């Protein structure tokens, strides 16, 4: 049963779906407004109507919604990359994770969701504005207890040792490979995301020099399918290149 303060996905169609908190007041759309107090006491999956009689459905948001609908001040790591990061990172409930370059917090939210209830994400960001925006995004989805934010530019080392996973999202990931090596547990995983071939080349060559193995570089492409009777086909547009992922494992 939905109560005040719960986070919901108010869904009408692919273009009209909103991640909001239930509280007293009205939520306005191009199809009219909804009295949010009227949602309290309903079950997920029920419909609500605007003042114009347009139907919306009250849904429980999933991790895809939580990451895609962050307030953005930067480019985000997309769910298609986040999924691969999560399965290749080796993280688990209770893991200790470093991310350097939090952006707008999409990956921060996903990492925090997976390491709770006893783990911690240590999120480093040198830009104060980006950091504060990510804090708000993480707080909105109720995961603040699992993230420690650090307004700091890392050069030689991170504050933590023996962490289970490190994710680097900066313009020159190779500059932090020594710091990542010192902070990681032996046998644990390193990851970075880069937009260009030049960046991945420099990063991979540096990893090879620094006792990392099992190095692989991936690009993740996703294409939706338009399902229609007699004319099902792929969509003409797709979010193709958003970044190259690099994974590696620390040896000793």
Kindly summarize this structure in a few lines.
This protein is an alpha/beta fold and 252 residues long. Helices cover 24% and strands 31% of the residues.
Report on the biggest sheet: 7 strands, mixed
By secondary-structure content and strand pairing, the structural class works out as alpha/beta
Distance between the termini: 52 Å
Q: In CATH terms, what is the fold-level topology of the largest domain? A: Rossmann fold
| Strand coverage percent | 25-35%
Mean pLDDT: 96
Low-confidence stretches: none
Order of the strands making up the biggest sheet: 9-8-7-10-11-15-12
In total, how many domains does the architecture comprise? 2
Q: Sum up the overall morphology in one term.
A: globular
**How many separate helices?**
6
Q: Tell me the series of helices and strands, N- to C-terminal.
A: EEEEEEHHEHEHEEHEHEEEE
Rg, please? Answer: 21 Å
Query: Mind telling me the CATH class of the largest domain?
Result: Alpha Beta
